[in-house]
Design a protein that fits this description.
about 300 residues, mainly alpha, Rhopdopsin 7-helix transmembrane proteins, transmembrane helix, transmembrane
């Protein structure tokens, strides 16, 4: 844990930015939690991709508590790392692990969908007991980043999370000493993998739709691409800016955008599910008693794809 000797005990509140983070987090959690509930129930949960999406959803909601809810509170109060070093350090480690787990799941889900589209006869590697192995991988990834890497610490002066604690001692050192190389590698891999997998997914789906249901090409293809672009766009921005800000000074607007992108990475999936995924939306409406018809008739066939998350 970093020492705070000699650090000025000052507060840097910003009510507007703090409320923005906090309200965004709460709104996204309200939208996301019902989606997780319906995805965790049969028949959806019987599909491999929904198991991954439920796991990822739980990680997303927990991480929103830190990167949005608590970040908003810290920004409103203006407290820095040195006002509560133990709590900040522990939560910073957890948030680092949750971000890593989300990245792993995001790439794995894209890989899963690409595999099932390209090699459907071998899709059994994601079913049954195999799925426990796949779920174990992001869990191990989470443990590594949580316990063996530098924590992300919120700094109200820059309105974002940094690896540099910005204490009196750290200001006298080379800031690059706090750079997190595994984090940089992780973010770079996410960008490369998503750029590799999603063009394949969209092209394959467009071909299948054209071959089987020509009249629905435009609507379905646009929907798939829109869902992918919205969520992947947040991942690209978040991954890039959080790496860039660790090495180079940037205007505060970019640090705010980077944290908004992080919130979007974890919060947008729930909104996308409800707005663009009819199966999940119908079941959420049924969960609240708003819609009762048709939902029970939805049949999920093996290897059917629901494109609500990257």
């Amino acid at each position: 844990m970093y020492k705070c000797h000699g650090t000025v005990d000052a507060f840097y509140p910003n009510l507007g930015i703090g409320l923005m983070y906090l309200l965004m987090g709460v709104f996204c959690q309200i939208m996301y939690i019902p989606c997780i509930i319906v995805m965790a129930r049969p028949p959806l949960f019987q599909m491999p991709c929904f198991k991954i999406m439920v796991y990822m959803g739980v990680v997303d909601v927990i991480c929103l508590v830190i990167c949005a809810d608590l970040a908003g509170i810290w920004q409103i109060t203006g407290q820095t790392y040195c006002h509560s070093p133990l709590v900040s350090y522990i939560l910073g480690n957890i948030s680092m692990g949750l971000w890593a787990a989300t990245c792993f799941c995001c790439v794995f889900l894209a890989f899963n969908r690409t595999w099932e589209l390209m090699i459907p006869s071998k899709a059994y590697i994601f079913e049954g007991r195999f799925m426990y192995f796949w779920i174990l991988l992001p869990t191990c990834y989470f443990m590594f980043f949580t316990f063996f890497e530098r924590p992300l610490l919120y700094d109200p002066r820059l309105h974002t999370f940094l690896f540099d604690p910005r204490t009196n001692i750290s200001q006298q050192l080379d800031p690059h000493i706090y750079a997190n190389l595994p984090h940089t590698i992780n973010n770079s891999i996410v960008i490369v993998c998503l750029l590799a997998f999603y063009p394949i997914i969209c092209a394959s789906l467009a071909y299948q739709i054209k071959r089987n249901q020509a009249s629905r090409i435009s609507t379905m293809t646009k929907q798939i691409i829109l869902q992918s672009m919205v969520i992947c766009g947040c991942h690209f921005v978040g991954c890039f800016l959080y790496v860039y800000t660790q090495y180079f000074p940037v205007p505060s607007i970019f640090t705010i955008i980077s944290n908004l992108a992080w919130i979007g990475n974890h919060g947008l999936p729930g909104i996308v599910y409800l707005s663009l995924n009819k199966t999940i939306r119908c079941r959420v409406l049924a969960l609240f008693g708003i819609q009762r018809t048709e939902v029970s008739k939805i049949v999920i066939k093996p290897h059917t794809h629901s494109f609500g998350h990257p």
